Amino acid sequence: xxxxxxxxxxxxxxxxxxxxxxxxxxxxxxxxxxxxxxxxxxxxxxxxxxxxxxxxxxxxxxxxxxxxxxxxxxxxxxxxxxxxxxxxxxxxxxxxxxxxxxxxxxxxxxxxxxxxxxxxxxxxxxxxxxxxxxxxxxxxxxxxxxxxxxxxxxxxxxxxxxxxxxxxxxxxxxxxxxxxxxxxxxxxxxxxxxxxxxxxxxxxxxxxxxxxxxxxxxxxxxxxxxxxxxxxxxxxxxxxxxxxxxxxxxxxxxxxxxxxxxxxxxxxxxxxxxxxxxxxxxxxxxxxxxxxxxxxxxxxxxxxxxxxxxxxxxxxxxxxxxxxxxxxxxxxxxxxxxxxxxxxxxxxxxxxxxxxxxxxxxxxxxxxxxxxxxxxxxxxxxxxxxxxxxxxxxxxxxxxxxxxxxxxxxxxxxxxxxxxxxxxxxxxxxxxxxxxxxxxxxxxxxxxxxxxxxxxxxxxxxxxxxxxxxxxxxxxxxxxxxxxxxxxxxxxxxxxxxxxxxxxxxxxxxxxxxxxxxxxxxxxxxxxxxxxxxxxxxxxxxxxxxxxxxxxxxxxxxxxxxxxxxxxxxxxxxx
Amino acid sequence: xxxxxxxxxxxxxxxxxxxxxxxxxxxxxxxxxxxxxxxxxxxxxxxxxxxxxxxxxxxxxxxxxxxxxxxxxxxxxxxxxxxxxxxxxxxxxxxxxxxxxxxxxxxxxxxxxxxxxxxxxxxxxxxxxxxxxxxxxxxxxxxxxxxxxxxxxxxxxxxxxxxxxxxxxxxxxxxxxxxxxxxxxxxxxxxxxxxxxxxxxxxxxxxxxxxxxxxxxxxxxxxxxxxxxxxxxxxxxxxxxxxxxxxxxxxxxxxxxxxxxxxxxxxxxxxxxxxxxxxxxxxxxxxxxxxxxxxxxxxxxxxxxxxxxxxxxxxxxxxxxxxxxxxxxxxxxxxxxxxxxxxxxxxxxxxxxxxxxxxxxxxxxxxxxxxxxxxxxxxxxxxxxxxxxxxxxxxxxxxxxxxxxxxxxxxxxxxxxxxxxxxxxxxxxxxxxxxxxxxxxxxxxxxxxxxxxxxxxxxxxxxxxxxxxxxxxxxxxxxxxxxxxxxxxxxxxxxxxxxxxxxxxxxxxxxxxxxxxxxxxxxxxxxxxxxxxxxxxxxxxxxxxxxxxxxxxxxxxxxxxxxxxxxxxxxxxxx
Lengths: 575, 575
Fold this sequence. Notes:
Two copies of one chain form a homodimer.
Chain A: E1 7-8, H1 10-14, E2 29-30, H2 32-38, E3 52-56, H3 66-72, E4 82-86, E5 99-104, H4 112-126, E6 131-135, H5 139-143, E7 147-149, H6 152-155, H7 177-189, E8 194-199, H8 201-216, E9 222-227, H9 245-266, E10 270-275, H10 282-291, E11 295-296, H11 299-304, H12 309-325, E12 331-336, H13 339-342, H14 344-359, H15 374-382, H16 385-393, H17 408-425, E13 435-440, H18 442-445, H19 451-469, E14 475-480, E15 490-495, E16 500-505, E17 508-513, H20 523-537, H21 559-574
Parallel strand pairs in A: 5-6, 5-8, 8-9, 9-14, 10-12, 10-13, 11-12
Antiparallel strand pairs in A: 1-2, 3-4, 4-15, 6-7, 14-15, 16-17
């Protein structure tokens, strides 16, 4: 074991002082893993290693309401998808220098830096002399024309590293006519040939609108989106997975696996683990497939079956009682962060509370509660007192109840305790129960990208740059065939408009990319559903361990993707 | 990327069904990392690969009150330490078969399974035909004679795996004459030549008492302890580190590093991270040395300087204000789980509350508060309301305030918010503050042991078995020279009585192994203290990443151990 406190970071020494931005990784030292990951060489899909050309698919439509989408995107609607294929001509793509901007939008996801290095390396390889601008702090950086010119030295220390700190991110949106104007000014000022927007569903919708707007103003600036979100809810047939999902789930699954072994070793705790992912439960489902917990709540199933909190509590308590009879007074339970949002009765209660609290004074005696509808009152009384108080006291600046602040896992522990106590009184349960709550969230957003996400993101960056280089706009970069070796991955772009539907807001149609929810008929959920009864009463725990970057265990891909790919392959075979 | 959902666990197929215990790893599948770790080959110190003999040091004393320890351990007091050295005789140790028991005591720590496999493999190698019994569920397993005979097949799937689930653990103590009698009966019934007690300070004190008791009753059963605890507070000159500390700190540091990158990427959160370790702050200090957070609170320093909660809050707020002026409205703050126990004024308040709440009725108007001494009242009023309520409402079965339930990180966030708001009113602070709380605890106790802990524990197990084989009792297994290559590690045992002092309890002297606290004059704290001002205002974050088992980054050792070894080496050079 060679003693080593901290090794000189190669990056820091190689990098001239002038290139250092205020927020950048200027520390004189970095960890061994940081240093070793910087030097990790990434494979590329074969088509990106040879001269290539673009072939087009048939004209596209939209995910819904094509007539409205066509009206909102008169220049872009109907674009075919683009695929890169090898070309025997060496000059399939012009050698012209490009000026490209890139922006990170929204919450962090492991691999964002690799999209940027992919863009950079593509430009170095195929359009030497090009310039890459990194807009700082998200879309606000575009509007304020706040950017850093990304050089080889500058980006070097971020290769295969987690986080978005190379240029940071932000949650601003480019929405109003003034904001679009600001974006145009930046595009003109920097003479941008293209812009890559790395973001989730909202950001990619925005990318589409920007592309349409630039085109309508006859600006040369083209826009390509990249699918980012650990939540895994931005995907479609041609975009099999959003980046970051693989890494984040592996980090959460590592922790869950550890907690499972702990539960089995001490034999006395029920661990309630809340997992990030508000809108969809993909993360929770994936973590369940990786670790085999005793109980997993999937929000989409709760919504589909119109379950109440009482139903969910009873389900958990039933399993706890059954396990207790088998001699197991411990277990692990996974809960999606957004569970409450999936429970119809909670939505109803929140709506009534917002209304009442806006207009009534809340009397100590509780007379205000009479304003609640009977079912909502019943639910309110069912909630633990701490949650009742939280609902009453913690309001956002608009006076609304802050549902997101509710620690669902703690709420469930309290409700389970009450129900177990009741069953104990009725002599239906004799076990002991100690709940431990966990929330795994921020730990997973900025981890080192797995080998899969590192390679996938690098290919996405290459793809985005290649699409811009070929004059494409209004597409989302897509890399497919991900179950095959990297050399066989497909590369191209899909019309952003083809992912869109419209929503009516303030009397107007707004384009939206619909979030991909967990499909109860999809292969991942069906696999889970076929196993959960066994996992509930038998202990089939699996401990995935920490992400490995070297060796045979470093090539795993998440189960959700593999199962979906398998299902697709089977569908193809049947057809 | 080879698709692989879950691979057949080699262990499960190799293992006859009859060997499967109810709580054991019977799943038909395990993760790739689980499978690959099972096959990981461990190096041994050279002395354990050759014929060896034992050499003895000078007679030992105790850590304090030698006269009292001598009275409590009339048969064992003064034993010299034992060192294994190579022997040219091939028969330095008898070939006799042994019957050995092993027990896991107290909270989990990564590497416990490897101590057991080390004992097992030693017996296979040096005393073929021996029997190893694993007492189930901790010391209760000894008293109830509840055990599993550990066979090659049985232990195989637990090689290099985290957790204590091979035989599980428990927190019972062997204390009363009846309990000692039960232990004697088990020793006689199983005809035990030896017992290895794997545990922390309390368990090793117990191991010493058992050894003394067996000796005094002329039983042949000898007892050897092994130093276990993630808290790192069981160590002395000859036992440089307790096992599990290395792995747990690396797991926590991985998460802290991720959260740091997240903080820098989004630029808007202060992450307050509470870390396991109630009695001593070694874990917090080690994580700080690995990751360079902006603020780290070390309990021992708080106690030494007699800081109040207001002092701690002000220190945090001062740094936050300074950082805000530099443009950083984010940061990472590490807090030891036991912080509150280190604050003298809190201890005083708790004592007064316990007294008052036992005898007074608590009136709504708050008149009861007049019973508090002025300083305690001032502290009580300074605490956030939620914490006040927690102190009043949540009592243990003895009616005492449950200090351990207080979420220190949330309490500090609230106190910091109040103070920042005050400074904002006074125009001394203009920044934005959003606190995020984390508790990293259970995730670290059962992770896969790092290569260091895997190898160290295996050597400890070998050492314990060798000491028993040589007829030793009342020693704690010690493996030293840990900064050197494994082949040069030293192996031996140290008299448990030499670690002991006495405490007066219920009018009697009780032997105790004193917890090793963070020494403010020690090399690890001094290194930290020399850097913390720079870390506070500049961002020197280091992201250690996930533990790697393969490749150049897999050989790191924790900083605390290295710094202490370095300091020792320097001391030796000076002498």
